[in-house]
Structures are given as C-alpha cells and as structure tokens.
Model the fold of this input.
Amino acid sequence: MIESILFVFENMPLLLKGALVAVELTVLSILLGMVVGLLVAILRLYGPKYVKKLMKIYEWVLRGLPILVILFIIYFGFPSLGVNIPAFISAVLGLGLRSSAYQAQIYRGAIQSIGVEQVEAGLSIGMNRAKTMLYVIVPQAIRLSLPGFTNEFTIVLKDSPLAYALGIAELLKQGRNIIVTSFRPFTIYLTCAIIYFLLFHFFYYLFRKIAEVYEVPGYIMSKKS
Amino acid sequence: MNKSLLKLGIIILSVFLVFSLFSCGKNEKEVLRVGTNAEYPPFEFTENNEFKGIDMDLAKVLGEKLNMEVKIHDMDFDSLIPALNAKKIDIAMAAMTVTEDRKEQVDFSIPYYSVDQAIIAPEDSNIEINEEDDLTEYTIGAQNGTTGQIYIDKNFIDKDKMNKKQLNKYPTNIEAITDMLNGNLDLVIIDSSAAKGYKKMKPIKTIYTIKTGENYAIALRQDSQLKEKINTALKEILKSDQWTDILNRYIK
Amino acid sequence: MEFFGVFAEYIPVFLEGLWLTIQLTLISAVVGFFIAVPLVLSVLYGNKFFESIAKGFISVVRGTPLLVQLFFVYYGLPAAGLNLTPFQAALIGFILNSAAYQAEYMKGGFLSLTTEQMDAAYSIGLNKWESIRYIIFPQAFRFSIPALSNEMIYLIKYTSIAYIIQVEELFAQAKYFASDTFYHLEIFLLVGVVYLILVYGVTFTSDWLEEKLQIPGFDVSHLK
Done:
C-alpha cells in the first residue's frame, strides 16, 4: 500500500502534465463551442428560413453522432479531401463543434426565455436589432445559460480522454506510458480516475460559484443540474 | 465572490491557454515527422516523457544524418499506416515488419533489424510446444495488427485449425502479457526482440520460436521523396559503432 | 462507386458489429434501470447508510470519464482477481454508468411528485413504503420513459468507446475496415448515418410512447 502511494507520487508530475492537457483540451473546445454555439443559436432564432433549417440539421446531426465518429472523420477522413489537421486541433474541433450543437440549444432556450418584450424595449429606445441582440439579449442569455453551460463543461471534460484515440498525450495516455514500463494498470488507472474526479468537482463548483455571482436578478435559475 | 476578480481570473486563464497553443514554433531545419507506438520496449517506450528505445535512438541518428529535426508522433500501432497515408507523419518507425500486405499500402526502407516470432508463457507455466500445431490447443494473445496476430489468423484461424475466440487481440503487448499473467490467456505471441525486452520486467519465458525471419524496416508513403536519402543514411548507420551502441543499450 | 463494391464484402462483419452495439445498449439500459430504481429510492427515502452509499456511487460514476471506467474495469481489475472478456468488461462499465445516470434523472421525476402527493397518501392512512409503492412509483415509472430513452441514446453513441477495449462493435468494424482499405472518410460517414438512424429511431419511438402513456395533468416535457 505505502509502496503504491510512493509509486503514484513518483509519477505524479507526468500524470499532472496529462491532466493539464485534458484541461486545455476541454477549455479550448468549450470556447470554440461557445462561439459557434451562440452563432448557431442566433441564426436558428433570427436567420432566414433556410438558414434556420440548416442550423437545425447541424444541431441534429452533431448531437446524434458518437463523438468518436466525429473525431475520426476530422482526423482520418478529412485528409482524403486534402484537409490535414494535426491531432490536437482535430480533437478541439471535434469536441468543440459537437459541444456547439449542445451549447446552441442551451443559448436558444435562454434567449427565448428572455422574451420579446425586451427586444421591443431595446428597439423603442432607438437601438437597432443587432445592437439589441448584442447589448440586451446576449449578456442576459449568457448568464441565464450558466447552469446548462456548467453541465456541458463537465460533459466535455469527461469526453476529453477520447482524444487518446488520436494519440494525444492526455492523462490516460500518460498513464499508459507509465504502465508500459511499470506494469501497474490497477494503481495507475485508479489514480487517473481520482484525478478526473477531482477535476470534475473543481470545475463543477467553480462554475456554480460563477453562476451564483452572475445570476440575473429577477430570473430564477435552477440551482441543481 | 468578487466579480472583477473572477473576470480577471477568467481572462488570465484564457490568455494562458491561447498562448500555450501557439508557443510551439520556430523551425529552422526541415522537420521529419516520425510516427511510432511508444508502448513497445525495447524498441519504443517513454521514460519521464522522453522517447526511448532502439527505434527512437535510431530516429535521432537518422535525423542528424539527414540534417532534419525529428518530431515523434506517438499513436496506436493500428493508426500508423492510416496516419502515413493521411500525411500525418512522414515515416513510421515502430518495429514494423515488412509484409506483402503492408507493401500494398506503404513503401519500406532497407531492413535494419531481423526477428522471429516468440511464443511466451508465464515463467511457472508447464505448457510445452513442440511443433506449431500444438498452439491450436491454447488461447493466445497478440497485439492487434502485428505480425504475430496476422500469423495466427492466417495459419490457424483462416484454416479452421483454431476457433476465432482462441485469439485475443489487444491494443498493446502490455495488456496481452498482463492478461496472460493474470491467467486469462495461455500464451502470447510477440516479436522475439520484444520478448527479450519484456523478460527484463516480467516473469515470462520464451517457450517456442516460429522462424519467420522477418525484417523491421522504416515505413514510408509510396510517393515519398525520402526513400533514397533514408536508405543511404541507414546503410551508413548500420555499419557504424553508433548502431552497436544503440543495440547494446537496450538488448544484450 | 468503388467503395460500395469493397464494402459489400464486409457487410456480414458490420452486421455482427451492429448486433453487438444493440446488445450492449439494450442490456445496459434495462439492467441499469433496475439498479437505478433502488438507487434513487435510497437517495430519496433511504436511511443515512443507504443514502450515502447510493450518493457516493452516483457521484463517482458521474464524476469520472467513461473511458477511464472501462480501462479500470478491463485492465485494472484483473490485478484484483477479476478477469473479464472485453464484452463483459464493457457491459459492466455501461450498466453501472447507465444506473447512475438513470437514477439521477429519475430523481427529478420523483421530486416533482413527492411532497404533496406523499402528504395526501399519509392522510389517507398509507405508510411510507405503501405510498411509494402505490402512489409515487406508478407515476414515476411514466417519467422514466424519457429517462430510459435518453439513456439508450447516450448508450448507442457511447458504446463506440468499447472498441478501445477490443469489443468488436460497429465502430470497431469501421476502424478495421478503414485500416484495411483506406476508405476512412467514406466508412466513418456511413457508420455515422447508421448511428443517426439508431439514435433518432429511439427518439421517435419514445416520443410516441410517451404521448400514449401521458398522465393527464402532468406534463413531463420539461424533463427532456
């Protein structure tokens, strides 16, 4: 037992390096998902009819596909179209675009819950539609979306080890590298699980705190998710 | 919690992340992207995040000879040929045996190492293999996509001498050997050189050798411009003391 | 196209893979459901001991990635004396996962019923377990239809991860095919379509079932 703990501590720097890659992957994917997701949500609500339809299909397809299929199409499939993307960026694209489909849903729900009155109010004080969106609706929508966003963040975090399939040196891959010379899968995988568990709860509570701070007064947000 | 502090934290975090993405740069020399599967001692493995092993040291020397900067891309063994053809890597050095099937998909350099297939068992096992067909009575493990796995598939399973369930395929030899030592498998088939490497770490023994006389070579894309240069450099290296040193470092 | 000619030869193995995917999904969803029921009852109505065990289990499963769980079960547990085939290991991983997620999901359904209806049940002389058995559960069961279908959709997509521990399900077959033939884009697009059909097949069936079994006055659409 003590020997195992020492063994884990000895290898902790490598595992933490892998954990950092997992966090980078998650944060970058979430950011990409946020930008694309907001765009998709707005287009789906306010775009021309065929754009709305297109956005609906976009969400529909990305939400229905296993993440591995998306990752493999981007990493191994795209080169036959002449588009060759490195592993890490492929993983960010795959995780990020998939997340954008889910985030779009979250933002759309939030925008809809704000209601037409505020758009009308915005217009009546002389702002144009774009300005109303940018200054009135979006800031509130983002705040209202925080609980859903928190959930989405943890989902991406928990899917990040799948980047392992593209050969990225995230936590699980670092774990395997250690196992190659130590032959101690039980201890290493258990440690990986604990690190992910701690990461999960760290981000979960961090975002919950953020959600509390940024709560829109007068709008009830569900505390649990 | 303080709002502005939180905002600042978020900004710092995102700036840090963006920079960490772009911080890799500055290439003066041409880059040689070498694909490998660093889960295969003594040919390729990692120690403290550094790539080690016969192939990795050979890649380093090769890079010096070609005046190219070597960049190692670590991936699943199964992904190496697809990655080569998808131009993810320039060459693959992963103790890869030259086979007719692989030759249809990729090109190979001159061979640099020759091996047979070893049948290994736990040290305390009393299984005896006197001829190849004795293997049909046992459950065998192999790393998926390796010569050993293909050999069992072609010579036993395709010929109905063995049930499909008697061959377990693993992503790497580690799981195969671990599974064998845990009693889930009787035997594992691996390259004889790897058997030597693993013997240093685990209680295993080689109980039979299938003389296949295979050659390890560097895999390249069929349209690769590098083949001539690599072959010339490889010929020089194989004659040099550097090569003997590398071999002595990992196998004795 | 040339691709379809090559693919035609591989159809039987793809069907085998598809069957494994379906098996993994159905068994995990159903067995997971039956584990989820006692879990959620323990969380909501159990004593301290059962409550903390159930909560701990749910929190660990939901707080760690599925792939790590599968690696732990398949490669880690043999060291603790539990030898499993890839299929068994995957099944255990998916069942435990599915139980935890379904429990969490059902909790919402139970909570939306509990207080008032429990008070009503007590007032007509039922005890705690009778109230759960006769009043809460039959209604909550209806709520679990979307829970079960959500879980199945999750499982259909995530069973693809099992290829990493050598389960030769649909995605594994696509990967083998791609390694052999280099039709990466084509084959992953094709299995993508198959996954979409499976996922949306379940969605439509469950929407239809839900409408049929709806409890008058209770709208569960917010739970989706």
In short: Residues 110 and 144 of chain A are 6 Å apart (CA to CA). Chain A touches chain B through 31 residues (CB under 8 Å). Residues 2-213 of chain A form a domain with the MetI-like fold fold (CATH 1.10.3720.10). The longest helix of chain A spans residues 2-46.
